[in-house]
Q: What sequence folds into this?
C-alpha cells in the first residue's frame, strides 16, 4: 500500500453500496483533500467486509479500527477526529449486543473471531480496481511459480493433495476434475468460471468478484495451464453490474501487466479471458445448462456423461469451476497443499464461505473452516437470533438444501454431514429462521422458486415440482389431508430419483427435510388446521375471549357473513365454519374480546 | 469394437461399448418403454433429450435412476428395469405427464394411436394421484396442421424434426418450467411462421398435440350433394402405405383395393395422380431440356433446375431463399396439374360445369392441403383441387363408410385421368421424380430408345445422392436430396456458386412422399418407410408402360387439348410462379 | 409479404450490435442483452431482425428470450420496481411488501401501470441480505422496507 501513512478502507460491497457508501467515499475524499491530507492518507473502496448487518463499514489502517453504520455525514468527524487528532470516534464503533462494550479492532469482534479467510482473503483489504494491491499481497505469484517451476501435472497434484472440492454445491474434487480435462485429447479446451450465482440468499461469488477479481483470473490461468487451455470464459449474472465492471477492469489490467495474453512470464503459455452473461436462469448453475447458455441456447441441461471435462463448450473439453473454488487455488499453490489440508476435517478441507442471513443478529458474509458447527456459526459469529426470539431452523444449500433444526446445531459443517442430515452444502446460503417462521410455508417458498426456475425439459421437474408446490399450497390453505403428506413424500422421492439434472434431483430436499424435521407442524396443518407460527392466514382462527366480551353485539352486527351469534349482553360465539377471516369483528370490538390465534 | 459384459434383469448380456442400456436391453428381448425417444435408424434421425424419464432403470451403485435411452452401458453394470423402485418411479412420472394432459381421449384425433394413451394402458394407470393445474395454450389451426398443445408432453420430437432434420425453424421450445411448450415464434399461429406444412412434426408427435386439418367431412358433404360430380385423384405413395391402416404389413401394395374403396365411397370417377405425374414429366422434362440446351449453346440460364412437385419444398424456398425462386422448375405439382386438367379438359369432356365438379385428392402429405388453397390455383375463387385429404384421413373415411377394406376386389382406375406409367408411380419416393424425368428426357434429347429404364444409381435412402447419367455422350449431373435440411445444403451450394449439377430433385420429407406427414404413423420404425419404397419400385416394375411420354392418354391430352409441352395453354394451366414470403424490413 | 417496422436509427444501432459480435449465433444472449439495453425491452420486431442478422430462426430467438427471466417483451415502467425475493428477504417479510406495492399500484407482478410510470417485478437476491427486505427502484436500493414504508417510496416518484 506504498507511501501513505494511513488508509481509509470503505466497503464497496453491494449491501454497503446500497446504504450510500459511495457518497460516504466521496465525502471522505473531499474531507481528506480539504484538510490537506492527500499525501498521507489514501481513501480506497474495497470489496465486501462481510459484516453487512452493520454497513456501511469503514476501516482505518494500520490501527485496524472498524467503524460500523457510517453515514455520509460522518466523513468529517472521521477525518477530523481520527485521522487528524488520533481519537477514535466512539459512537461509530461496534457495540457488543449483550455486554454493550465497544470493540474497536475487528479482530476482537465475535463476528470475525471464528472466521478464517482464504477465499475472502483480500476482500476488504485491497482496492479491487488496482492490480498492484493484489500483487502486493502475493498476487500472481502462484501463477508465476506454476508456469516457471512446475509442470501441469505437478500443479494438478498439488490441488489434488490439498483436498479442494468444488464449492458450487456438488463437492467434486477439483484436482481430479482438472486431471480429467487435461487427459481429454483436443486442440481446443476451455476454462469456465461459473459466476452465475442464482441461489436466493447467496452472494459469496459476487463478493469475491467485486472484492478480489484477480484471484479468480489468476486461478483460471493456472487451470488453463494445467488442462492445456488458452481460453477462459466467465459466465456471470447480468444482474451483477458492479462485479462485471470490476472483472472487466481487472482483466484489462492483467493484460497490461502481461499476466493475461501471450507468452505469460516468458513461459510460452497463452491465456485470455472473455465474459459471457447469464440472463436470469437458476438452472444455468448446472454445468451443462451453463454451457448451452454460453452457446447462445436455452439453458437446458443434458444428460451426463458425457461430462463437460470430456465434451463441453461446443463439444470441446471444458473445465467448469465456481468462483469460490477458483479463489482457493492461488493460496494453495503459494502455501502448499499440506497447509490447506490441515484446515477442515477428514473429507472436507479448507474453508467455506457462507452468506449468513435471515433472523440473525449479524447478517453477513462469513468464511469458516470446514467442520465448524452450525452452533458456532449461528450463536458466535452470528451472535444469535434477532430480537431474542427462539431459534427454529437453519436452511443451507438454498433450493437444493434442507432445513436443519436444534438437533443438528452441533453437527460439524462439511459436505457429507450436511447431506446425511438431509440438506447439502450448496453454494453457501445459510438462512436462519425463528419461531415466527412456518416450515410448511418455507418449503412452499422454495418449491415456488424451483417451479419458477425449472427449465421444463424433464417431466419430474416440470410437472412434479408443480404438483409438490400445489400440495404444499393446499396444506397452507387449510385444505390438506394426511394422504397429502404421503403424496408429498412419494413424489419427492420419485423426483429425486428421476429428474434429469442437479436442480430437479435436489429440488424436493426442502420438502423432505421439513417433513423429517417438522413432521408435527405438517400434521398440525392438515389435522388440527393450525399454523403455530401464524403465517398461514387461512388457518387463523378468530375467537371471542369470554372474559372480555360484554355482549355489545358490535361484532355480530358487522360480520359480513353472519358467523357470530349471541344475545345482547351475553357472550358471543364465532362459527368457524362460516367465518371468512376478514377481521372486521376484531376491528369493531372495543373490549379486546376478539383474538386471533 | 470393445465388448463389455453386464447384467440386465438378472440376464448376462454382452454388448459393445457405447451401446445404450435401451438398445442393449432390446437386443435381449427386454422392451424398456420410451416416450420422448425416437430413432429412425434408416434415416439417421434420433431424438434423445432424455426428458420424459419414462425409460428410467436402476443401475446398481448409482444414486438415482438412469434414463435407459441416454445412458451408455459400462462393463460390469447391473441393471434392473422393472423392480418396485423403477416401476413406482415410472408410473409416477407417467401419472405426472397425464396430470398435465387433457382427458378427452375418446374424442381426440389420436384416440387409439396415441403413444401416451397406449403407455398409460400398458402401465396399468387407473388413477391419477397427483392432480392439479393444467397448462393451457391457444389452439392454432393453420391450412394444414392443428396445434392443440395442451396435449404437448414436451418430447421435443417435433422441434427436432423442424430444426435439425428440416432446418425450417418454425418451432422451438418456448417459455420454461411448467409453461414450457413447443411453439412458433411469439406463440403466434403457424401460418404466421416459416412453416412449410411438411407435416414431419405431425408424423412424429406421440399425442394429439399436432394433427392434420381434417377434411373428411367436406368430402362426405360433397359426395352427398346430388348437384356435384365428385372425382378423386390418389398419389403414388398412398397405395404403398394405406394397407397399414388395415393391419397389412408395411410395403403391401393396395392399389386395386384402394381404387375399389374410393368407388364404394361414391366418387364418380376414381383417377390417379400418377397420370398427372406423367404430365409433370412432360412439362418439367421439357423445361429441363430447354434450359440445358440453351446452356449448352452458351446462353445464360438458371441451372441447375430444381424439381417443384413438392409443396413443402416450394414453401421452404419461398420463405428461406426467395431470391432464388427463378431456379426451380415452374411446373406445377402433379396434384395441381391434375386439378387444372380436371376442371378444364375433363369437365368439358363430361360436360359438367367447373363449379359443379369437385376434385378431391388423397395425398401422403399435409402441405398439399395448403397448396390446393393457394390463390393462384383457383379460377374465380373456385380451386382446381377442392379438398386434399391424407392417407390417414382416407382410412378413416373408409372405416366410417362401413367398407370392409380387406374383402374388396382389386379394381382399376377410370380413364382418361387414371392411366399412368411406372414413371408416374416412382414419384412417391426420393429419387423417383428425377428418374422418371431422366427416362423421358433421355429419349427426347438423344432420340434413342432406352434399353434399361432402371436407374439404380438414383435410388436409395442416403440423404444427398448424386449421379452422372450419360445422355449419349453428354454427361448429365444429377443431385438428389430428401429432407429439407439436405435440400438447404444443395441450395446453399447453388447460392455460393459451388453447385455443379444440371438438375436436382428435392423432396421435403425424409424418404420422399412415402415418408410424408399424412402417411400412417410409423411410430419410430423407419423400416416401414423402407418397405414402402420397395413397394413403389415393385409397382413400377409391374407397369406395362414405364415412361411418361409413352402414356397414351398423355399423348391424347397433348394432341386434343394442350398442343405441346410448354405451349401457351400448357403454360397457363400447368405452370406457376413463386412468391417472396420472407418478411420485409421497413423503417419508420 | 409481411413487414417488420422499426425506427431507422435504432435499426442501424441494432445491426451494429450484431455486427460487433460478428453476427455470430453463439453470441445471441450477448446480443439480446445489448438490444434490451437499446430498446428497454425486446419487441417481436427486434427479435426478427436479430434472427436475420445472426442467421437463426426467430422461433429460436423467441425460445431463448422466453427462457431467461432477464429478458422481457413488455416495456418496463419509467420507474421499474423490483422486490428481492431471496430467502433472506422472504423470511424478513418481502411478500407483505409486494402485496403493499400491488395494492398501491393496482397492478400484478410483471405488469406496468396504465400511465407507464411504474412496473413491478421480483428478483432473486441482490446480495444485500443485511438490508432485507430490499426493494430496487431503477438503480436505487431501498433497504429494510416495511409495508408501511411503501407509500413513502412511491411518493418520491410522483
A:
Amino acid at each position: 500500500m506504498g507511501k501513505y501513512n494511513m488508509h481509509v478502507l470503505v466497503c464497496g460491497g453491494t449491501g454497503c453500496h446500497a446504504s450510500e457508501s459511495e457518497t460516504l467515499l466521496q465525502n471522505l475524499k473531499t474531507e481528506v483533500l480539504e484538510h490537506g491530507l492527500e499525501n498521507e492518507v489514501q481513501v480506497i473502496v474495497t470489496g465486501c467486509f462481510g459484516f453487512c448487518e452493520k454497513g456501511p463499514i469503514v476501516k482505518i489502517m494500520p490501527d485496524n479500527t472498524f467503524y460500523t453504520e457510517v453515514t455520509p455525514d460522518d466523513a468529517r468527524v472521521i477525518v477530523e477526529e481520527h485521522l487528524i487528532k488520533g481519537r477514535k470516534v466512539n459512537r461509530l464503533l461496534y457495540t457488543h449486543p449483550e455486554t454493550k462494550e465497544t470493540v474497536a479492532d475487528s479482530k476482537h469482534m465475535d463476528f470475525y473471531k471464528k472466521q478464517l479467510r482464504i477465499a475472502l482473503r483480500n476482500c476488504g483489504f485491497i482496492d479491487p480496481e488496482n492490480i498492484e494491491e493484489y500483487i502486493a499481497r502475493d498476487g500472481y505469484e502462484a501463477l508465476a511459480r506454476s508456469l516457471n517451476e512446475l509442470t501441469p501435472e505437478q500443479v494438478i497434484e498439488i490441488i489434488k493433495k490439498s483436498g479442494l472440492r468444488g464449492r458450487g454445491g456438488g463437492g467434486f474434487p477439483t484436482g481430479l476434475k482438472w486431471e480429467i480435462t487435461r487427459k481429454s485429447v483436443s486442440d481446443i479446451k476451455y476454462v469456465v468460471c461459473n459466476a452465475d450465482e442464482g441461489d436466493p440468499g447467496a452472494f459469496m461469488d459476487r463478493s469475491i468478484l467485486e472484492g478480489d477479481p484477480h484471484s479468480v483470473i489468476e486461478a483460471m490461468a493456472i487451470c488453463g495451464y494445467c488442462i492445456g487451455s488458452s481460453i477462459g470464459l466467465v459466465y456471470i449474472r447480468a444482474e451483477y453490474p458492479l462485479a462485471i465492471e470490476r472483472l472487466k477492469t481487472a482483466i484489462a489490467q492483467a493484460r497490461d501487466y502481461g499476466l493475461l495474453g501471450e507468452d505469460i512470464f516468458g513461459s510460452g503459455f497463452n491465456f485470455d479471458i472473455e465474459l459471457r452473461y447469464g440472463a436470469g436462469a437458476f438452472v444455468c448453475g448446472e454445468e451443462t445448462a451453463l454451457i448451452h447458455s454460453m452457446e447462445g441456447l436455452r439453458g437446458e441441461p443434458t444428460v451426463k456423461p458425457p461430462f463437460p471435462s470430456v465434451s463441453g463448450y461446443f463439444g470441446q473439453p471444458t473445465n467448469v469451476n465456481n468462483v469460490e473454488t477458483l479463489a482457493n487455488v492461488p493460496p494453495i499453490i503459494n502455501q502448499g497443499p499440506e497447509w490447506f489440508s490441515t484446515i477442515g476435517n477428514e473429507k472436507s478441507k479448507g474453508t467455506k464461505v457462507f452468506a449468513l442471513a435471515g433472523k440473525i443478529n449479524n447478517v453477513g458474509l462469513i468464511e469458516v473452516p470446514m467442520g465448524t458447527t452450525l452452533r458456532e456459526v449461528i450463536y458466535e459469529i452470528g451472535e444469535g437470533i434477532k430480537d431474542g426470539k427462539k431459534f427454529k431452523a437453519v436452511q443451507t444449500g438454498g433450493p437444493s438444501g434442507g432445513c436443519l433444526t436444534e438437533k443438528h446445531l452441533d453437527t460439524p459443517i462439511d459436505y457429507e454431514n450436511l447431506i446425511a442430515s438431509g440438506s447439502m452444502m450448496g453454494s453457501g446460503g445459510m438462512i436462519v429462521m425463528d419461531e415466527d417462521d412456518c416450515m410448511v410455508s418455507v418449503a412452499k417458498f422454495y418449491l415456488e422458486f424451483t417451479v419458477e426456475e425449472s427449465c421444463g425439459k424433464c417431466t419430474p421437474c416440470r410437472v412434479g415440482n408443480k404438483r409438490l408446490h400445489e400440495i404444499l399450497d393446499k396444506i397452507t390453505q387449510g385444505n390438506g389431508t394426511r394422504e397429502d403428506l404421503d403424496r408429498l413424500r412419494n413424489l419427492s422421492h420419485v423426483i429425486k430419483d428421476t429428474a434429469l439434472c442437479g436442480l430437479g434431483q435436489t429440488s424436493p430436499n426442502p420438502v423432505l427435510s421439513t417433513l423429517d424435521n417438522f413432521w408435527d407442524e405438517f400434521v398440525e396443518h392438515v389435522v388440527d388446521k393450525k399454523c403455530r407460527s401464524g403465517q398461514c392466514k387461512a388457518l387463523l382462527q378468530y375467537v371471542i375471549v369470554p372474559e372480555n366480551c360484554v355482549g355489545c353485539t358490535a361484532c355480530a352486527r358487522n360480520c359480513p357473513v353472519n358467523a357470530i351469534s349471541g344475545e345482547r349482553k351475553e357472550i358471543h360465539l364465532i362459527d368457524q365454519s362460516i367465518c371468512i377471516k376478514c377481521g372486521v369483528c376484531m376491528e369493531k370490538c372495543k373490549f379486546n374480546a376478539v383474538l386471533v390465534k | 469394437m470393445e465388448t463389455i459384459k453386464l447384467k440386465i434383469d438378472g440376464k448376462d448380456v454382452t454388448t459393445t461399448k457405447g451401446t445404450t442400456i435401451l438398445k442393449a436391453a432390446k437386443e435381449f428381448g427386454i422392451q424398456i418403454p420410451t416416450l420422448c425417444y425416437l430413432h429412425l435408424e434408416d434415416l439417421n434421425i434420433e431424438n434423445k433429450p432424455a426428458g420424459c424419464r419414462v425409460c428410467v432403470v436402476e443401475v446398481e451403485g448409482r444414486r438415482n435412476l438412469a434414463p435407459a435411452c441416454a445412458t451408455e452401458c459400462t462393463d460390469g453394470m447391473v441393471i434392473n428395469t422393472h423392480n418396485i423402485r423403477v416401476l413406482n418411479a415410472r408410473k409416477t412420472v407417467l401419472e405426472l405427464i397425464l396430470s398435465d394432459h387433457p382427458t378427452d381421449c375418446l374424442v381426440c384425433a389420436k384416440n387409439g394411436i396415441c403413444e401416451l394413451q397406449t403407455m398409460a394402458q400398458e402401465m396399468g394407470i387407473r388413477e391419477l394421484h397427483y392432480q392439479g393445474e393444467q397448462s393451457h395454450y391457444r389452439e392454432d389451426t393453420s391450412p394444414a396442421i392443428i396445434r392443440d398443445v395442451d396435449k404437448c408432453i414436451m418430447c421435443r420430437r417435433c422441434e427436432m424434426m423442424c430444426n435439425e432434420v428440416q432446418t425450417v425453424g418454425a418451432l422451438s421450445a418456448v417459455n420454461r418450467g411448467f409453461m414450457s411448450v413447443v411453439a412458433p415464434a411469439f406463440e403466434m399461429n403457424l401460418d404466421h411462421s416459416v412453416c412449410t406444412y411438411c407435416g414431419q412434426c405431425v408424423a412424429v408427435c406421440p399425442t394429439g398435440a399436432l394433427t392434420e386439418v381434417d377434411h373428411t367431412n367436406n368430402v362426405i358433404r360433397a359426395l352427398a350433394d346430388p348437384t356435384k360430380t365428385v372425382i378423386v385423384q390418389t398419389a403414388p405413395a398412398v397405395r404403398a402405405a394405406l394397407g397399414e391402416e388395415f393391419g397389412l404389413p408395411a410395403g403391401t401394395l393396395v392399389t386395386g383395393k384402394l381404387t375399389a374403396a374410393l368407388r364404394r365411397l361414391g366418387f364418380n370417377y376414381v383417377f390417379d395422380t400418377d397420370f398427372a405425374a406423367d404430365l409433370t414429366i412432360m412439362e418439367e422434362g421439357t423445361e429441363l431440356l430447354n434450359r440445358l440446351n440453351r446452356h449448352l449453346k452458351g446462353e445464360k440460364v438458371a441451372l441447375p433446375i430444381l424439381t417443384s412437385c413438392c409443396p413443402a419444398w416450394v414453401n421452404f424456398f419461398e420463405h428461406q431463399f426467395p431470391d432464388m425462386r427463378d431456379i426451380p422448375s415452374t411446373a406445377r405439382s402433379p396434384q395441381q396439374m391434375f386439378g387444372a386438367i380436371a376442371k378444364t379438359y375433363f369437365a368439358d369432356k363430361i360436360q359438367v360445369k367447373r363449379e359443379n365438379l369437385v376434385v378431391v385428392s388423397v395425398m401422403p402429405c399435409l402441405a398439399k392441403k395448403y397448396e390446393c388453397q393457394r390463390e393462384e390455383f383457383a379460377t374465380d375463387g373456385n380451386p382446381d383441387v377442392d379438398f386434399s385429404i391424407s392417407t390417414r384421413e382416407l382410412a378413416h373415411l373408409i372405416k366410417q363408410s362401413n367398407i370392409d377394406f380387406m374383402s374388396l376386389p382389386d379394381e382399376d382406375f377410370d380413364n382418361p385421368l387414371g392411366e399412368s406409367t411406372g414413371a408416374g408411380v416412382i414419384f412417391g419416393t426420393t429419387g423417383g421424380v428425377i428418374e422418371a424425368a431422366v427416362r423421358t428426357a433421355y429419349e427426347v434429347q438423344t432420340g434413342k430408345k432406352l434399353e434399361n429404364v432402371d436407374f439404380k444409381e438414383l435410388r436409395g435412402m442416403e440423404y444427398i445422392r448424386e449421379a452422372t447419367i450419360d445422355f449419349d455422350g453428354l454427361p448429365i449431373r444429377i443431385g438428389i436430396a430428401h429432407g429439407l435440411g439436405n435440400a438447404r445444403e444443395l441450395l446453399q451450394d447453388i447460392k455460393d456458386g459451388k453447385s455443379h449439377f444440371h438438375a436436382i430433385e428435392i423432396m421435403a420429407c425424409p424418404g420422399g412422399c412415402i415418408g410424408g406427414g399424412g402417411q400412417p404413423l410409423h411410430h419410430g420404425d423407419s423400416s416401414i418407410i423402407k418397405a414402402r419404397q420397395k413397394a413403389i419400385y415393385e409397382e413400377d416394375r409391374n407397369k406395362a408402360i414405364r415412361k411418361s411420354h409413352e402414356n397414351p392418354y398423355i399423348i391424347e391430352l397433348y394432341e386434343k387439348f394442350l398442343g405441346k409441352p410448354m405451349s401457351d395453354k400448357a403454360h397457363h394451366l400447368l405452370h406457376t410462379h413463386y412468391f417472396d414470403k420472407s418478411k420485409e424490413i421497413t423503417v419508420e | 409479404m409481411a413487414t417488420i417496422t422499426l425506427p431507422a436509427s435504432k435499426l442501424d444501432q441494432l445491426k451494429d450490435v450484431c455486427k460487433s459480435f460478428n453476427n455470430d449465433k453463439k453470441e445471441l444472449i450477448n446480443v439480446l442483452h445489448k438490444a434490451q439495453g437499446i430498446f428497454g425491452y425486446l419487441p417481436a420486431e427486434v427479435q426478427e431482425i436479430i434472427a436475420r442478422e445472426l442467421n437463426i430462426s426467430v422461433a429460436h430467438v423467441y425460445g431463448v428470450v422466453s427462457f431467461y427471466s432477464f429478458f422481457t417483451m413488455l416495456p418496463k415502467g419509467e420507474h421499474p420496481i423490483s422486490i428481492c425475493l431471496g430467502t433472506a428477504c422472504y423470511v424478513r417479510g418481502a411478500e407483505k411488501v409486494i402485496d403493499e406495492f400491488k395494492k398501491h399500484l393496482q397492478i400484478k407482478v410483471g405488469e406496468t401501470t396504465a400511465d407507464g410510470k411504474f412496473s413491478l417485478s421480483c428478483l432473486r437476491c441482490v446480495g444485500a441480505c443485511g438490508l432485507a427486505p430490499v426493494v430496487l427502484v431503477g438503480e436505487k436500493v431501498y433497504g429494510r422496507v416495511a409495508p408501511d414504508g411503501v407509500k413513502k417510496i412511491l411518493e418520491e416518484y410522483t
In short: The CA atoms of residues 7 and 61 of chain A lie 5 Å apart. Chain A has a mean pLDDT of 93. The longest strand of chain A covers residues 269-278.
